[in-house]
Write a structure and sequence with these properties.
Strand 2 and strand 3 form a beta hairpin. It is rod-shaped and about 85 Å long. With 195 residues, the protein is mostly helical. Helices cover 61% and strands 6% of the residues. Strands 1-3-2 form a three-stranded mixed beta sheet, with helices on one face. The protein has eight helices and three strands. Helix 2 packs across helix 3 (75-94), helix 3 (75-94) packs across helix 5 (113-142) and helix 6 packs across helix 8.
Length: 195
């Protein structure tokens, strides 16, 4: 999605909220919204997708007491900045973007680099950890007791005499997650007690 397509999309979203959108080329700030009067004024020569998304978040949150334009201490401004970045990132990902193309994201949206990086990095890492956890859970489910039994039978067939077994070594040998330790230990105990 190009910068202009993104701007058009965001402006349409604002209009869908019932707001009048007015382009004033000599407006002193890139964009501002009056939630009570349902109007947004923006300067099409100056406004970036980040600034328009920021105003859209104010609309969605019904923020009507925000203070000055660059009041970074106002909680409504802090929330609008964060949620605007997350909204833009969601759109970016929906159009094929990912963390590898973070610079493209920043260049397209004009989001403040450091702020966007800290927010997206945290979100990306949380998502990565969640995916890893899901993947590990799928691995746990994907191996059954019979498969574990077959791996262990194969493993012990390489030994003439077994005095002790290093279960972690066994798991590594068959490229199995260490999460299978308990399952393997029980299966080893059952197999070796019958030998």
């Amino acid at each position: 999605m190009s910068r202009q397509e993104l701007l058009d999309y965001l402006l349409k979203e604002i209009e869908k909220c019932g707001f009048e959108v007015v382009d004033v080329e000599f407006f002193p700030v890139p964009a501002a919204v009056n939630v009570d009067n349902k109007i947004m004024i923006y300067n099409s020569k100056e406004a970036s997708p980040f600034e328009i998304a920021h105003e859209l978040i104010h609309i969605l949150n019904k923020d009507n007491h925000r203070g000055d334009y660059f009041d970074s201490t106002n909680p409504q401004e802090i929330i609008a900045n964060r949620e605007a970045i997350l909204l833009l990132w969601e759109i970016f990902e929906a159009n094929g973007g990912n963390y590898e193309y973070f610079n493209v994201f920043v260049n397209t949206t004009d989001a403040p680099f450091e702020l966007a990086e800290s927010i997206i990095k945290n979100e990306y890492l949380e998502m990565h950890e969640a995916i890893t956890e899901i993947f590990e859970n799928e691995i746990k489910v994907s191996i059954n007791k019979q498969e574990m039994h077959d791996y262990i039978v194969d493993y012990i067939s390489y030994f003439d005499v077994i005095e002790s077994v290093n279960i972690y070594q066994f798991l590594d040998c068959y490229h199995l997650s260490h999460n299978f330790y308990n399952m393997a230990e029980i299966e080893f105990q059952q197999l070796l007690s019958t030998v």
